C-alpha cells in the first residue's frame, strides 16, 4: 500500500497530525536557523540544539515560480503542458527566523506581504515505490489559526 | 594624475564577442581575448610576467598557455562565483601594487549551457531536498528581493521595463553585445512572466564570451600607451550576518547591508573618492531590479530615488549619471568568469573616448564597476584617467 514519505528526514516532523519545521537554535546567542545546522554564523559558535518552529507566520516577501525548474534537482512535475506555477516566499516565524518555502497560492492577486500563513504538507511527486513524496509549504491561515497567531 | 611605482594602470583590453558561439570553446574565447588585449597594449605574450584567470564552466584558465605560449609565467586560476573576474583583477592589481611584478594580466571567459543556471547544491552547502522541492533557483531570489524592495521604497512596475528598454537600446549600439535588438517597454512588460514581478526580458541569460586586461606599473604605462587608464581601487567583499542573499533556506530577521555596500565603501576609501566623483557606472544587472537596487547600494542615490531618476532619464548615456552604457548583463548575457571584466573593458573604452555611438559625452574622467553574485559576493573597481 502506498504511503506518504517526506522529501528528506529531519526537515519537518513526519508522520504527524501537527507537523512542525525542525530548526536549530544557537545555545550561545539564541539565533534560529533552518534547516538544522551545527554552527552559528551570527556568533561563530559551534553549539546548537534542535527546536520545532511555530506552524504560523507572516509573509515577508514572495514571488511565483512560473516556469518548470531544471530537473534535476527539481523533483516535481516539469512537463511544460501540465506544469503548475507555485508561489515561493520567506515567512517570518515569531520574529526568530524567516524560512524560505513553497506557497500553496500562486496568483499574485492573492499574495500580499504581511499576510498570515500556516504550515501544510504538500505532495511533490510519486516515487518508484508508488509512495507519495511530500514537502512543506505555507498556505493562507485558516480563520482559527490566523486569530491565534 | 601623478603616478608612482605602486599605482596600477590598464594598458590593454581585449574581448571576445559575448553571445552564443557554437563550435568555439570557452578556452578559445579566452585565448582570442588575450591576443586582442596584447595587440591593444602593444605587448608580446612573452613580456607578461603573471596572470590571474578564471572560468566557471569553460575550463581551467591556465590551460590557455598551451595555445598562447609556454613562457613559464606565474599563472593562478581563480574561482569565485560571479566575482571571478573581479577577483582576478583584484589579485593582479595587488601583485603590481606589492612590487612583485611590473606587467601582468587578468582574464576571464565562460561558456554555459542554455537556460537558467543549474545549481550545484552540494557546492553551495545545500541539501538535496532544497532543490527537489523547487527552491534552488536564482530567479526566485531576484523576484523576492525586488518585490520586497518595491514594497519598502515605492519602485513601480513601469520603472522595471524602462531599465530593460535602456539596456537593449544601449546594447544595440555595442558590436560586442549579444542582444542588439532594441525593444519597447511594452514588449518587455508583456513578455512571459518568469518570477513575479520579473518577465523574460527583464532577466539576463547565462552566455559565452571572454575579456582580458593587461596591467602594468603606472609609472611605466606611458611606455606602452598614450591613454593609460588608472585602476584606483579594486575590492571584493562577502556577505555579513543578516544580509539577504541568493540560495538561502532561511534569513535572519535582523537586517544588515549586503556585500555590495561593503565593497563599495572599501573601494571609495581605497581610491580616496566618493560617489559624487564618479562620471558613469556599470552595475550588476542580472535583472532590472538589481540595477535599480544597486544604484542605491553603491551610494549613487538614496533608496527609492531611482524611481524619479529613471523617469527623468538620468541613467541614460546622455543623462546626469549614465549606468550600464554597454547594455549591461541584460544585453550582453552573463558568462560568469568574464562578466565583471566586461564592465571594466567598457569603462576603459569610455575613459579613452573610444566608445563610438554610445560614448558618454563631456569627456568622462572616472568610472565605476560593480559585480554581484552567488552566494552573496560583490566586487567593485574604480578607474580614472
Features:
heterodimer; A: mainly beta; five-stranded mixed beta barrel; B: 385 residues; alpha/beta; Peroxisomal Thiolase, Chain A, domain 1
Mind explaining what this structure looks like?
- The complex is a heterodimer of chains A (149) and B (385).
- By secondary structure, chain A is mainly beta.
- Chain A has one domain.
- In chain A, 4% of the residues lie in helices and 40% in strands.
- Chain A is built from one helix and nine strands.
- Chain A has one helix at residues 143-148; strands at residues 4-6, 22-26, 32-33, 48-52, 56-65, 86-93, 97-103, 116-126, 132-140.
- In chain A, a hairpin with a 5-residue loop joins strand 2 (22-26) and strand 3 (32-33).
- Chain B is of the alpha/beta class and 385 residues long.
- Chain B has a single domain (8-115, 204-384), classed as Thiolase/Chalcone synthase (Peroxisomal Thiolase, Chain A, domain 1, 3-Layer(aba) Sandwich).
- Helices cover 33% and strands 20% of the residues of chain B.
- Chain B has twelve helices and twelve strands.
- Chain B has helices at 26-41, 65-68, 84-97, 128-132, 138-153, 157-171, 185-189, 259-271, 288-297, 306-311, 328-332, 336-352, and strands at residues 8-19, 50-54, 74-77, 103-111, 193-195, 198-199, 208-217, 229-238, 250-251, 281-283, 366-373, 377-384.
- In chain B, strand 2 (50-54), helix 2 and strand 3 (74-77) form a beta-alpha-beta unit.
- In chain B, helix 6 packs across helix 9 (288-297).
- Chain B is globular and about 55 Å long.
- The termini of chain B are close together.
- The mean pLDDT of chain B is 95.
- The A-B interface holds A 7-8, 11, 23, 31-35, 41-42, 60-67, 69-70, 72-76, 86, 88-90, 92, 95-102, 108, 113, 124, 135-136 and B 115-116, 118-119, 121, 127-137, 140, 143-145, 147-148, 151, 192-198, 241, 248-253.
- Strand 7 of chain A pairs antiparallel with strand 9 of chain B.
